[in-house]
Amino acid sequence: MAKRPKTVFACTECGAQHAKWFGKCPECGAWDALTEEAPALQGEEKPLGSGLHGGRPTPLPEVRPGGEARLPTGIGELDRALGGGLVPGAVILIGGEPGVGKSTLQLQMASALASGHRVLYVTGEESSAQVAQRADRLGVMDSPLQLLAETDLDTILGRLQEQEAELAIVDSVQTVADAGLQSAPGSVAQVRECAARLVRYAKQTGTILCLVGHVTKEGALAGPRVLEHMVDTVLYFEGEQGGQYRLVRAMKNRFGSVNELGVFRMTGGGLEPVTNPSALFLSEHEEPVPGAAVVASQEGTRPLLVELQALVAESPLTQPRRVAIGVERDRLSLLLAVLYRHAGVALFDQDVFINVVGGVDLSEPAADLAVAAALVSSLRSRALPERTIILGEVGLAGEVRAVGRIEDRLKEAAKLGFKRAVIPAGSAEDLDNPGLELQPVRRIEQALELLLE
Ligand code: TYD
Ligand code: MG
C-alpha cells in the first residue's frame, strides 16, 4: 500500500492539491498560492443501493417554484448590489480587505432586519462585547438581534437550528472550524468544509446565509476565492485606503445582474448609502489640468462619471515604471503600444502612472480612449478641453470601437453640465438629442488631434 502523504499543498486560488510545494500552481498558474495542510480523509466507498434512503426525485410540475419572494434589507444601496434584496435560502459571500467595513454593513443589515425576522449574528473574530460596542456606535443597541460568539461549526449549526434563524451571518468564515478536521482554522480545507456544511444547512432550511470573508491585497488568504463557486452571490467591497467611499460590487449573482454597484460613505455612524454617486468621482479643479480626463463609465444599470489621471515623467530607470490603479495593467500596456504605433507617441523612456479618482475600478474597455488622451495630455503638459467626456474602446489597429449604453452615459454627463463628448463613430448613429455636442471619431489619432491640437 502506498504511504499516505503527511501533508498536502493546496492552492488558495483553485483548490487543487499537490504532493509538494510549487511557487506557481501547476493547475491554475497562480503564483505563491500553495499552502501546506493535512490531507482530506477519503471516505470508504459504500455499496450500491446504500443511497436509496436519502432524497427522492420529484416530477418538475409538482415542485413549487421558489418565486421572487425577496426580502429587502432596508439598505437601498445594498439591495441594489444584491439585485433587489435577499432571497430565502440564498448564500451570500461578502469579501473585502480587513477594515473596509464588512462587519459594519452586516451589523447594520442584521439589526435592520431583526425587528421583523429571526436573525443570528455569529461573531468569530470579535467578542460579543466588541460587536455590542459597534452596535452602540451605529445606534442599533435596541435591535432584538441574537449574538453568538462562537467558532465551532457544530455548535453554530446547532444554534442556527435551535433559533430557527431566518437570516444568519457568519463573521468571518475563516474563523470557523470543524473539530473533525485536522487543519488549522483559516486553511483551505477548513474554510471549504465549513462553508460547504453551512451552505448545505442554508439550502435545506431556506435560511439566508451571509458569509464574511477577508481577502488580502494579494488575495492570498484562504477564503473568498475558493468559496466563490459554492455560493449564490459574491459581493466585494472596494474602497481607497483612508478614503471615505466604499463600493460594494456584485461579482457573481444567481439572483440578479452582476457588476451592479452599491455606493456608501463611511461615517462616524456607520455606512451611509450614497444614492446619487455620479458626480462623486470627479475631482474639483478650478481650471482644467494636464493629465486629467473624464469618462462616463457604466456600473451595472447606473452610469457613473469618473475622472482618471495620468502622469508621464521622464524616467531615470532603465526599465521605466508602469503603475496603474483602477485600470488593468495589461490594458495600459496595450494602449501604450497602440499610441506608439498609430499615433506616434513614444513613452519608452517615461514613467507612466494612471490613477482613477476615488478608488473606482475602471476596467471596462470604454475607458480606453480617455486613458490614452490623459496620457498624451500629461506628456504634452496640455489640458484636455473643459466639460468634455471621452468614450471609446481602442482596438489594436488604432480604431475606436463602439461602447454599450451610450445614451445613458451621455444623458448623465449632460445632467452634470458636460458640454461635449468625444465618442466612437459607431456609437453615434441613432442618437437623438443627448443634450451635448457630439464629436464622433473613428481612430485614436483623430481623437487626439481633436482633443489636443
Ligand atoms: P469593519 O466593519 O470592522 O471592517 P471589516 O469587518 O471589513 O474588517 O470596519 C472597520 C473600520 O470602519 C474601522 O476602521 C472603523 C470604521 N468605522 C467607522 O468609521 N464608523 C463606524 O460607524 C464604524 C462602525 C466603523
Ligand atoms: Mg470584521
TrEMBL record:
It comes from the Bacteria. Keywords: ATP-binding, DNA damage, DNA repair, DNA-binding, Hydrolase, Metal-binding, Nucleotide-binding, Stress response, Zinc, Zinc-finger. A motif (RadA KNRFG motif) lies at residues 252-256. InterPro entries: AAA+_ATPase, DNA_repair_RadA, Lon_proteolytic, P-loop_NTPase, RecA_ATP-bd, Ribosomal_Su5_D2-typ_SF, Ribsml_uS5_D2-typ_fold_subgr, Rubredoxin_2. Signal peptide: none annotated. ATP binds at G96, E97, P98, G99, V100, G101, K102, S103. Residues 351-453 are annotated as: Lon-protease-like. It holds the Pfam family Zn_ribbon_LapB. Residues 67-215 form the RecA family profile domain. Residues 44-66 are annotated as: Disordered. The middle region has homology to RecA with ATPase motifs including the RadA KNRFG motif, while the C-terminus is homologous to Lon protease. DNA-dependent ATPase involved in processing of recombination intermediates, plays a role in repairing DNA breaks. Stimulates the branch migration of RecA-mediated strand transfer reactions, allowing the 3' invading strand to extend heteroduplex DNA faster. Binds ssDNA in the presence of ADP but not other nucleotides, has ATPase activity that is stimulated by ssDNA and various branched DNA structures, but inhibited by SSB. Does not have RecA's homology-searching function. Belongs to the RecA family. RadA subfamily. This is DNA repair protein RadA. It comes from Thiohalorhabdus methylotrophus.
